[in-house]
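Sequence only, no structure available. Ideas?
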Amino acid sequence: MIDFRRLRYFLEVATTRSFTRAADNLHMAQPPLSKRIQELEADLGAPLFDREARPLALTPAGRLLYEQGSQIMQRMDQLSVTMRDFVAARRRRLVLGMVTAGFHAHLPEVIRRFQAVAPDIDLTLHEMGTLEQIVALKDGRIDAALGRVRVEDPSLAREVLREEPLLLALPIDHPGNRGEGPVDLRLLEETRLIVFPKGQSPSFADNILSQCHDHGVRLCEVMEVQEGQMALILVAAGLGVSLIPESARLMARPEIALRPVKQVMTAPIILYHRLGDLSYELRMMLRTCAQLYAEWGESLPESVQDLIAGPAPE
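Reply:
I predicted one. Tokens follow.
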């Protein structure tokens, strides 16, 4: 294994073409430096320098390590600078995992409003599935997650922001698109239902199928696809119908009609965070949602409203 200390020693020798000058630049004696380079060569199983050449020359293995190692060291140096700048600026940061396919209509507005409400916080978004979000939260790679699937985990808190109505997406010329008013889900007993995502569990597809079962709808055929956009492409092609969240209507195409359904069908909007985390950054995200929901004629649950109040940041 190549450690960064020995790599830096090697790069200094390769650059100066002299163990003596490299040792001086590194503020160390030459014998320990030579020893570290020999250890590196032993680990790699190949000599890195032609010690008979004058001045000192690199072997083919040495040239390869110099080329790749220089790039790695430059990145490490840049990372050190970036981290120093970040700490010096004392910038707050919120890393949010999202299943973006389900929030097309409101996501740009949420981002713009958050930047206005909390200009002192850098917002970073990562697109990932629900199960990826859960793992990333527990690993500390993200601070919060926005999704649509209920997952039970004792180390995480789950805030249901809203139960959003589902719309039936069907081809514009489908017989079920006739007339006015909501469409009866029993249409699915004669029409293929396209659900997404494929292969994950629990998933948005599981939620859809469970609700259809609760309403006593006997599905004639179910097709699973990986993404919501693909589901709507197939709907536009006349290969079936799909159920999507109301806020995902921007994914629709001209060949598709979006109709409310007669039965109650909803998809939750859920904010996950680590249990006990009531950070300023998280509260500002909830406050952003509260403002927007009020403008949209809705409100967050009381349990979520209670989380918004809290002390000012230090």
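Residues 4-89 form a domain with the Arc Repressor Mutant, subunit A fold (CATH 1.10.10.10).
Hope that gets you unstuck.
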